[in-house]
Specification:
InterPro entries: Aldolase_TIM, ThiamineP_synth_sf, ThiamineP_synth_TenI. This is Thiamine phosphate synthase. 39% of the residues lie in helices and 17% in strands. The chain is an alpha/beta fold and 210 residues long. It has a single domain (7-209), classed as Aldolase class I (TIM Barrel, Alpha-Beta Barrel), CATH 3.20.20.70. It has an eight-stranded parallel beta barrel with strand order 1-2-3-4-5-6-7-8, surrounded by five helices. Helix 1 packs parallel to helix 2 (43-60) and helix 1 packs across helix 8 (197-209). It starts with 6 loop residues before the first strand and ends with a helix.
Length: 210
């Protein structure tokens, strides 16, 4: 099983910071896992971003995951991909990228989680926990009870899959979420829009790890 960090930081298109600046800030705050999520640029601009971000991540020993854009595999120093399409065929994706690349998926139901585990996903983002401006969607929100029950079902089925809560999570949500048995937390807006980016990142990191 591949190493999966417990706290994932996700970049986004925001006016006050470029993706590269977000990554620089996150690495300076101690980030060990960054998901570059940019769905608004053509390939040449994506690769320009990714190459700059990969250099920063390499300097800090940080894992770089790219949201979707799996066609860019092999064109930059990318350690893995996170596929947001909940209907994506992970068996086919795994054949496409090979075993060394980390593949993460998104899930909203226990059935999603079970399928991802069977098809070879290395981890999954499970949510949304709350509404978020950074990634609008129409999926039902998941409660603390939903997380607890889902993780219990996976355990009963002897399925070992790192599951991370995601979607509008605030620092005061982390303790209750971690008590569900969740593997970790993924965050974007609560760090990006904080008054102090680095302090917010470190507060989350410590809350998840404690």
């Amino acid at each position: 099983m591949k190493y999966i960090e417990k706290f994932h930081y996700i970049t986004h298109d925001i006016p006050q910071l470029t993706h590269i600046e977000q990554v620089q800030n996150a690495c300076e705050a101690g980030a060990k896992w960054i998901q570059y999520r940019c769905l608004s640029k053509p390939d040449d601009e994506l690769l320009k971003d990714i190459n700059a971000i990969a250099e920063i991540c390499d300097d800090w020993g940080t894992t770089l995951i790219v949201t979707d854009h799996i066609h860019l595999n092999g064109k930059a120093d990318i350690q893995g991909f996170h596929i947001e399409d909940m209907n994506a065929d992970f068996t086919a994706l795994r054949k496409q990228v090979g075993n060394d690349i980390t593949l993460g998926g998104s899930a909203n139901t226990v059935q999603n989680l079970i399928r991802l585990a069977k098809e070879g996903a290395d981890y999954t983002g499970f949510g949304p926990f709350f509404t978020t401006e950074t990634k609008p969607n129409n999926y039902p929100l998941l409660s603390i009870e939903d997380y607890t029950l889902a993780l219990r079902q996976l355990k009963d089925l002897n399925i070992e899959l790192p599951v991370l809560a995601v979607g509008g999570i605030k620092i005061y949500d982390v303790e209750a979420l971690m008590q569900t048995g969740i593997y970790g937390i993924a965050v974007s807006g609560a760090v990006n829009f904080a008054d102090d980016f680095i302090e917010a990142y470190q507060d989350f990191y410590e809350a998840v790890k404690s």
